[in-house]
Amino acid sequence: MYGADFEKRVDSLVARYPQPKAALLPVLWEVQRAHGWVPLEAEEWVARRLNVAPSHVHGCVTFYTMYKQRPTGKYHIQVCTTLSCMLRGSDPLLEHLEKKLKIKTGETTPDGKFSLVRVECLGSCGTAPMFQLNDDYHENLTLEKVDGLLESLP
Ligand code: FES
Question: Which atom of ligand 1 lies nearest, measured to the CA of 80?
Answer without folding.
Answer: 2
